[in-house]
Write a structure and sequence with these properties.
2 domains, 8-stranded mixed β-sheet, 12 helices, globular
C-alpha cells in the first residue's frame, strides 16, 4: 500500500476492494529491457542510451500472414509501472484462468514508461538534466518496445489507466491501423487545463520553491515541498466513499495520513516526480480524434476528482471519434474515485463487450 506513485493513488486509499477480485495464481512473467541508442525527444534533446523496461505474460500467436493476433498493451498511470497490474484488483479479475485477459490466450505487454519504474529516469544520475520528456515521447517509446523489443506487429487491444488512458488516445491517433480496439480508463482527450492543470502545477511549484531543491541537485529530498505535493495528490486521487468507510473517525483518518505520508516520503524522488507530472504539459489529442479507426470503449467514473463528469467534456469529445462509446460509471461503494480504473471488477463487463464486438472471424 505504501508505493505511492508507483501504484496509483487510490489503490492506497481503498482498503475494501471491489467484489470478484481474488488473489491471482502465481503468474509466469518475463522481464526485459530494450536499449535505444540516441533517442531524440520532441524538445530536440537526445539521450545516448535510453533503457525501456517491460514485463510480459503469455506467448504471442501469429496468423498465416505473420501478424500477431493476441497482443494486449496495458499502459500505467503517472508514477506507476507495469507491475501495478499484477495486483489482485486487476490481475485477480482479468489474468486468472478463463479471465477476459487470460495469459493462456493473450500476450500481455506491461511497459514501464520513460521516467518510471526500471526505465531510464532522472534519479538514475542526470537529475534535472534529464531530457524533458512528454507524452508523445513516451508513446513513441512504447511503440518501440512493442515493435523492436518484442517484434509485435499488431495489437488486439490497447488499454491504459489515467496517464495510460491519455496515451491510449495518442496511440489511436498516431498508429490508427495498429490495433483492433482501444479502452481508455479515467481520462479526458483534451488539454490539461482548469483545476486539473492547477493542482499539477501546485505540486511542481511546491517542490521548486523548497530551498532544499537546489535546482534539482539536492543532497536530500526536499521534504517540505514533497509533503505539499503528497497532500495535493492524495486529494486529487481521493475516493470519498471508500475513505469514509475505511477511516470513519477523525483519529483513524489522522493516523492514516501520518503513516501514509511517512511511507511516501521514504519512497519518492523529487526530480522523478516533477518530470512525471510535467510530462502532460502539451497533451491535447482533441483536434485529431477523428483519425482514430479502432472501436473505442472509454470509461470514467462519477467520483473522479481529476476528471469530474459535470464538466461534460467526455460527452462532447466522444462525438468526434468514429466508433466510440463513452461509459460513465456512477459513484457507489464499489467505485474508487480516480482509481476505479484499476478495480477491474467494476468495468470488466464493458471490456467483455468490446472484445466480443471486435473479435475477428477465424
Amino acid at each position: 500500500m505504501f508505493r505511492f506513485l508507483r501504484s496509483t493513488i487510490v489503490m492506497l486509499l481503498a482498503c475494501s476492494g471491489a467484489a470478484a477480485a481474488q488473489e491471482p495464481p502465481a503468474l509466469s512473467t518475463r522481464e526485459g529491457d530494450l536499449i535505444v541508442r540516441d533517442f531524440k525527444f520532441q524538445t530536440g534533446e537526445t539521450l545516448p542510451q535510453l533503457k525501456l523496461h517491460y514485463t510480459t505474460l503469455g506467448t504471442p500467436v501469429r496468423d498465416a500472414r505473420g501478424h500477431v493476433t493476441n497482443a494486449v498493451l496495458i499502459l500505467h498511470g503517472t508514477g506507476g509501472d507495469g507491475h501495478q497490474f499484477l495486483r489482485p484488483q486487476f490481475a485477480g479479475v482479468l489474468f486468472v484462468p478463463g479471465g477476459l485477459l487470460d495469459p493462456a490466450r493473450y500476450f500481455i505487454i506491461l511497459p514501464d514508461d520513460i521516467g518510471h519504474g526500471k526505465s531510464s529516469k532522472p534519479s538514475d544520475g542526470m537529475h534535472a538534466h534529464f531530457p524533458q520528456y512528454a507524452y508523445d515521447d513516451m508513446v513513441r517509446a512504447e511503440y518501440l518496445v512493442v515493435t523492436k523489443g518484442l517484434k509485435v506487429n499488431h495489437l488486439r487491444l490497447v488499454t491504459g489507466t489515467s496517464m495510460g488512458c491519455m496515451h491510449s488516445f495518442v496511440w489511436g491517433e498516431a498508429y490508427p491501423d495498429f490495433m483492433d480496439a482501444l479502452m481508455p480508463l479515467a481520462c479526458l482527450p483534451v488539454q490539461i487545463a482548469g483545476r486539473n492543470r492547477i493542482w499539477r502545477k501546485m505540486t511542481i511549484d511546491a517542490i521548486k520553491d523548497d530551498p532544499a531543491w537546489m535546482g534539482g541537485e539536492y543532497k536530500t529530498q526536499p521534504q517540505e515541498g514533497m509533503r505539499t505535493a503528497i497532500d495535493l495528490l492524495i486529494i486529487a486521487g481521493s475516493a470519498p466513499i471508500q475513505m469514509q468507510k475505511s477511516y470513519p473517525t477523525r483519529d483513524a483518518a489522522d493516523a492514516w495520513l501520518e503513516d501514509a505520508t511517512t511511507k511516501y516520503l521514504a519512497t519518492l524522488d523529487a526530480n522523478d516526480f516533477m518530470y512525471q507530472v510535467a510530462s502532460s504539459r502539451d497533451y491535447d489529442p482533441s483536434g485529431a480524434l477523428d483519425k482514430i479507426k479502432a472501436p473505442v470503449m472509454w470509461i470514467n467514473s462519477g467520483d473522479d476528482f481529476i476528471n469530474p463528469p459535470d464538466l461534460g467534456i467526455a460527452q462532447e469529445q466522444v462525438k468526434k471519434i468514429p466508433h466510440a462509446q463513452f461509459v460513465l460509471i456512477p459513484a457507489s461503494d464499489q467505485t474508487h474515485g480516480h482509481g476505479t480504473h484499476t478495480w477491474a471488477a467494476v468495468w470488466k463487463d464493458h471490456l467483455a463487450e468490446l472484445l466480443q464486438e471486435t473479435a475477428r472471424a477465424p
